Every structure is written in C-alpha cells, then in structure tokens.
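Thread amino acids onto this structure.
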C-alpha cells in the first residue's frame, strides 16, 4: 500500500497571510500548489489584540464564533463575504480586514464544499447534518442535543482522534476531545486549564467508529441545544494527533508525524498553559518561536526559550526549555494537532527534503 494518498496536502489545508486594506469585498487567493475552497476558516490578527474568529460553510459566512470566548454564534455581515474556489472574500470587519496595517493569519480546512448529509434523531443518536471529506479525515457536524448521553454521527469511516464541539444558541465552552488525553480528559479550547477528569462532556465508550459519544453536560448535549463540531481523523502523511512528554531541556522531545508540518497546535494537559499555535508561513525557517494562542486575543509573540520548535521533514523537535509553554516540567504531557506541508514520502516513493 502507498505511504500516503495525499501527495499535496495544500488541497486540504492551507495558511494564508495577508495585510488589511480596509476595502469591502476583497478577494484573497491562496498560494498553495492546489486550489482550496475552505469549509472551515479560522482567522486571527497577528499584530493586534483582536479575538480569534471561526467560520464554516455549514453555518454560513455571516456567522462566526471566537475560540477565545464562550459566545454563541455572532452575526457579522462585514467579516467573510464568500468562500471562493481558491480562497475567500473579506469585508471590512476588524476580524478580517480592518484598516491598512493590521496583519492576519487565516488557517483553512476543506470538507465537502458546504454540501451536507442529514441524520435523523433517534433515542440515543442526535439528529443534524454533517459534511465530510473522507480523504482528508475531516468533518463539520451540526447537531441538536438530546436529553440523554448518546452519540453524534460524523460520517467518517474511522474513529476520530480529535473532536472540538461548541454550543451555538447560547454561550458555552469549546469542549475538546483528544485521543491522547482520553475520553475523560476533556480540554477547553477557550481556556488554559489542565485536562478535566470527567465523562460529562464525552461519555465513555465508542459505539461506532462513525459516531462520537456525548455526555449529559449542556456544553456538549443540552436537550434541544444547537451545536457545531469539528471532527478530525488521522490520515497518513497529512495529519497526526498525538502526544509527547516534556523533558524541560533544549534538546527536547522529537515527535514523528510522517510529514513536514505546515501547522502545529499543542497544549499541556497537566498544568495551566495556553494552546500554542505554530505554522510554516508566519515562521518559514527554523527555529520556530513565534506563536499565537487559541485561548487568547493577544497578538503573536516571539520567545525562543518559551516556544522554540523545529519543523522537520518527518516531524517536529521541541527546543524550548522547561520554563515556557512547549516543554514545561519533565514528565508533563502535551497533546498536539499537526497538518502537513509535504508528506515524508509521497505515494510514488519520493522523499521530502528537510527545511
């Protein structure tokens, strides 16, 4: 079997950097090898302290949510105007295109072009819709809560490693399941807290690989509540979701992903620390020591001792010492999400060169 079925990861994930110009209906075009029409679009200002904003093609371009807040859906008609064949069009909102000097990073994932499949509610199964990309292992799920612990159909054929769920109709935290933290080790994307030890959000056990389990807490499952969930399942050579153990040393852990990363997000599960976001566009050469934080509106910051990481042809290497947020205290466990720039070896056996 081929090493990977995804020779060009830019068909499914890309980062776009741009500087605001304040003009309405401004079309922004991606620069990857493949065209990418985003179905999930996550934008953050780099040099200004504005909130994160996240749009998707299931909810539509007028609605967004802030990963560093608990807000319900926010209507913003000046944020994103459209998802395009190879990029997106912005308005004049502070969260997408304000003034002439604000810089932005936009992370984009492809699902199914906004085309959804409906799921009927039954006793233990939440009703709603999903749009999946089986090749990339990504699904955007909209569901309505039920009055008991149950399951949500995501449509992928393999059990996901990551589920990020958010209530839409009222405020609520961003409940995040990560396989390496365990079903009871829920984290919250809007918080710096360590992993919770509870089955209230994602109950124990998986009844089916095509569904994820929800508990009885209103953050993931209030009867009649409206939710959105982003579901990720590993695909060799394109995505990897795992963990590493800190050693508090500049010769930090090496993590094999099977590809040269384009995007990396990490979180300490044992202590209060931020969600650290790296990408290969904002810092194109090693070492990478400039980050944004998913739980904070703050501008990007640079600190080698706290953040330093190298992106390699087959994974990443932590270089930060034990006083920062990437390698704090020997024995601490960090979970990560990573997406590829290039696979370590293509489907035809061509290796990726180091950075």
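Threaded sequence (355 positions):
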């Amino acid at each position: 079997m081929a090493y990977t079925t995804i020779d060009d990861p830019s068909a499914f994930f890309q980062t776009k950097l741009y500087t605001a110009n304040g003009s309405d209906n401004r079309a922004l075009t991606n620069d990857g090898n493949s065209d990418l029409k985003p179905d999930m679009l996550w934008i953050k200002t780099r040099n200004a302290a504005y909130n994160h904003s996240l749009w998707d093609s299931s909810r539509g371009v007028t609605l967004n949510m802030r990963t560093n807040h608990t807000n319900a859906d926010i209507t913003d008609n000046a944020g994103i105007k459209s998802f395009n064949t190879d990029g997106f069009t912005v308005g004049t909102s502070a969260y997408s295109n304000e003034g002439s000097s604000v810089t932005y990073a936009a992370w984009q994932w492809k699902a199914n072009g906004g085309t959804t499949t409906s799921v009927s509610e039954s006793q233990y199964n939440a009703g709603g819709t999903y749009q999946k990309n089986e090749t990339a292992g990504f699904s955007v799920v909209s569901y309505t809560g039920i009055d008991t612990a149950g399951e949500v159909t995501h449509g992928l054929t393999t059990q996901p490693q990551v589920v990020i769920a958010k209530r839409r109709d009222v405020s609520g935290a961003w409940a995040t399941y990560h396989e390496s933290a365990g079903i009871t080790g829920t984290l919250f994307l809007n918080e710096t807290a360590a992993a919770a030890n509870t089955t209230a959000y994602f109950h124990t056990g998986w009844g089916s690989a095509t569904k994820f389990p929800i508990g009885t807490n209103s953050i993931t499952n209030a009867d009649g509540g409206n939710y959105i969930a982003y579901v990720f399942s590993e695909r060799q050579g394109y995505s990897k979701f795992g963990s590493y153990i800190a050693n508090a040393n500049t010769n930090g852990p090496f993590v094999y992903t099977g590809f040269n990363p384009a995007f990396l997000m990490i979180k300490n599960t044992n202590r209060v620390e931020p969600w650290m976001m790296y990408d290969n566009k904002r810092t194109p050469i090693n070492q990478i020591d400039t980050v944004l934080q998913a739980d904070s509106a703050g501008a990007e910051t640079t600190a080698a001792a706290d953040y330093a990481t190298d992106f390699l042809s087959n994974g990443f290497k932590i270089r930060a010492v034990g006083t920062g947020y990437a390698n704090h205290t020997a024995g601490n466990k960090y979970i990560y999400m990573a997406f590829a720039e290039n696979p370590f070896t293509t489907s035809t056996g061509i290796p990726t060169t180091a950075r």
